[in-house]
Amino acid sequence: MHPEYSKLQPYLETLRVKPNKSVDLKDDFKTDYDDKILSKEEGEALLQTGIDLLSEMQDKLYASGKHSVLIILQAMDAAGKDSAIKNIMTGLNPQGVKVTSFKVPSSNELAHDYLWRHYIALPAAGEIAIFNRSHYENVLVTRVHPEYILNEHIPNVTSVKDIDQQFWDTRFKQINNFEEHISDNGTLVLKFFLHVSKKEQKKRFIERIENDTKNWKFSTADLKERSCWKDYQKAYEDMLSNTSTKCAPWFVVPADDKWFTRLCIAGVICNEFEKLNLKYPVVSDEQKEKLATAKKELDSE
After folding, report:
1. How many other C-beta atoms are found inside a 10 Å radius of the C-beta of residue 91?
2. Which residue, of 60, 67, 211, 251, has the greatest Cβ tally within 10 A?
3. In the beta sheet, which residues pair with residue 98?
4. DSSP state of 145
């Protein structure tokens, strides 16, 4: 890790949800930044350092061709997922990154199991994939609105009454198995919950309404989901408590201050990326001789 990140590193570890930890969002994690570890100016400069590091790491990821990276962003509306992607990933080569924003599933997607559309969007070796919302919508939106589950045509689920705690526990287990499988096969899985306060969400909603250039971002459906705030917080707590594992950890990032949110996400990605110990492929002596011969031919032209 870059020396400049050493001051922030202990804080970043506090954002990690330990496996089997029972999460209480209100008591365990803050939505704002008040530790004064860094000033905003220092943080923005350090973010640029992180962006440069990610660019270098991506190059090694592609060159080595053995690993891939999956970055998952989940949050309530207006928490800053889109801007985080835009600002943090700006230094990456677009050819090696794909961003998938998962919307309401189509009829074709509903004809498959709920993980299918996510599986086909996974990164290949050497690639980075970003899920803007993800398979976790299947234990969040559907948890708050269980009637949506009926559209999946699951055997033995004929009414909302059939969707009990055992159903969700089984789904958590399925997700953990899915992530363990792709991790075992070379995918680094990093999951971020952008933890925004209800007060800050209200402020951002009003900005979207008052600013003509942001009107398109606001939907009256957002207000409907906001009215379910407590239900969503409970669903997120259950999700975090049951699906943060050693191979696919959750990080709960304070999201009321966007500059700090971006800095934390970039810092965590750089730190976990570094653990892969990626290196450029070693060229054999025979290959070096061929390179030398090729250079002589080019020089003699």
Report:
1. 15
2. 251
3. 129
4. S
SS3 for 27-45 is HHCCCCCCCCCCCHHHHHH
Q: Which among 274, 248, 233, 191 has a CA at the least distance from the CA of 3?
A: 274
Of 15-19, 183-187, 215-219, 271-275, give the lowest mean pLDDT range.
Answer: 215-219
Q: Which two tokens stand for residue 69?
A: 């990276």
Residues 187 and 179: their CA atoms lie apart, in Å, by 9
**Sequence-separated (6 or more) residues with CB below 8 Å from residue 41:** none
- What CA–CA distance (Å, rounded) separates 10 from 254? 15
Tokens of 185: 């096969």
How far is it, in rounded angstroms, from Cα 179 to Cα 173?
Answer: 10
Q: What are phi and psi of 37, to 5 degrees?
A: -70, -40
Query: In angstroms, rounded to a whole number, what is the distance separating the alpha carbons of residues 267 and 64?
Result: 22
Average pLDDT over residues 137-144: 97
Please state, rounded to an integer, the average pLDDT across all residues of the chain. Answer: 93
- Asked whether the predicted pLDDT for residue 83 surpasses 80, the reply is yes
Unique residue bearing structure tokens 């365990």: 28
261's tokens: 């949110």
Q: Look at residue 1 and tell me whether its pLDDT is greater than 90.
A: no
